[in-house]
Amino acid sequence: MAELKNDRFLRALMRQPVDRTPVWMMRQAGRYLPEYRETRAQAGDFLSLCKNADFACEVTLQPLERYPLDAAILFSDILTIPDAMGLGLYFETGEGPRFEKTVRTMADVEALHQPSADGDLGYVMNAVGTIRRALNGRVPLIGFSGSPWTLATYMIEGGGSKDFRFAKAMLYDQPEVMHALLDRLARAVTEYLNAQIEAGAQAVQIFDTWGGALSHPAYREFSLAYMSRIVKGLKRSHDGRTVPVILFTKGGGQWLDAMADSGADALGLDWTTSLTDARQHVGDRVALQGNMDPSVLYASPDRIREEVERILAEYGKGAGHIFNLGHGIHQFVDPDRAGAFVEAVVELSPKYHR
Ligand code: 1CP
C-alpha cells in the first residue's frame, strides 16, 4: 500500500502534535452533493451503490475532490449488519430505511443469522480495498459500524423511530432478550470492524446515534458495556501503525468520563457539549472530535467562520482535537457552505498549534 502523505488525522487521534487541526465531516459523501445524486441515479438505488465497490469508491472520493479534508470515510451504512443477519433491508422512496422482518422475541433473536465479515459482508471489504488503492496514500480511510444498541433499535422497530416504543419495552420488560440480541451484535460488529481493519481501514468509528435516548443506568448497561467489549476485541494495529478507535454517542455529553474508560482513543461530541468542559473531564485519556452544530452550515460564510473560531478557542491550544460536525451534514446544505467550513478550519487553526 502507498505511503500515507497526510497523517494529521491519525496523529491528532493519538494526541500527537500537528501543524493544524485536522477536519472531516460526518456523512461527508451524500445527498447534499449533486455529484453524489448523479452517481446514485446511475447505480439505481442506495444499496446497489453500497454493494458495488467502484461506485462506493467514487462517492467516497467526491467530497475530497471539493474540499481539503484530512480523512475519507468508507461509503456504506450501519444497517449492512442487520441486513446480513437476514432482516431484509430496503429503502422506500422519500422514506428512511425499513426492514422486512423485525426482532421482538427470544425466538427472533435465535433465528438471526450470525453474519460472516468475509462472506455476507465481503462487499464492504472489497469497497475498503478499492478505496485504499484509489486514495493512494492521500489521506487515511475511516471504517465504521453502528453500536449494538443503535443497530438493535432499527432491528426491533423495523426502521427509524422517534420514541423507540418496542425497543424500550423490550429493554424494561425483557432485558434478557435485549442482552441476547446485543451480545450477537457485539460479536458481529467486532468481527466486521476487524475485517475492515485487515482490508485497510486506518481508523474506525462506532456510531451510537441513539445512545442519548437511554437513561443514565441504561446507557451503561445496554450501550457502553457492549461498545467497551468491542473496543477490547479490536486489532489495534495493522501494517505497523496504530489503528485508533473513535466512539460517538449522540447526546452522550454527560457520560464522557465513563466513555473515556472504554479504551477508545477518541470520543466524538455533538454540539450540546462544551469542548472546554469535555477536555477537563477526559484529561489526557482520549482525543476529542467535533462539534459544530451541522445547522450552522445553513448560515452565511462569515457566520460559519465565526463559529469555527469559537470552537477552536473552546478546545484551546494543543494536540488532541479533530474538527468535525456534531452530527451528519444535512441534505439541504449548499456545498459551498461546507467548503467555507473546511477552509475556515484550515486557515484559522494553525495558531492553536504553535
Ligand atoms: O442516498 C440516499 O438516499 C441514502 C441516504 C443515506 C446515505 C448517504 C443512508 C441511508 N446512508 C448513507 C450513508 C452513510 N450512513 C454513511 C456514509 C459515509 C459518510 O460519508 O459519512 C454513514 C457513516 C452512515 C451511517 C448511518 N446510517 C448512521 C449513523 C450516523 C448518523 O448519521 O447518525 C445511521 C443512524 C444510519 C441509518 C440510516 N441510513 C440511511 C438513513 C437515511 C439513515 C437514518 C435513518 C433514521 O433517521 O433513523
Automatic annotation (TrEMBL):
Residues 22-31, 142-158 form the Uroporphyrinogen decarboxylase (URO-D) domain. The lineage of its organism: Bacteria, Pseudomonadati, Pseudomonadota, Gammaproteobacteria, Oceanospirillales. It comes from Saccharospirillum salsuginis. Pathway: Porphyrin-containing compound metabolism; protoporphyrin-IX biosynthesis; coproporphyrinogen-III from 5-aminolevulinate: step 4/4. It is found in: Cytoplasm. It is an enzyme of class 4 (lyase). NCBIfam families: hemE. This is Uroporphyrinogen decarboxylase. One of its GO terms (biological process) is protoporphyrinogen IX biosynthetic process from glutamate. Signal peptide: none annotated.
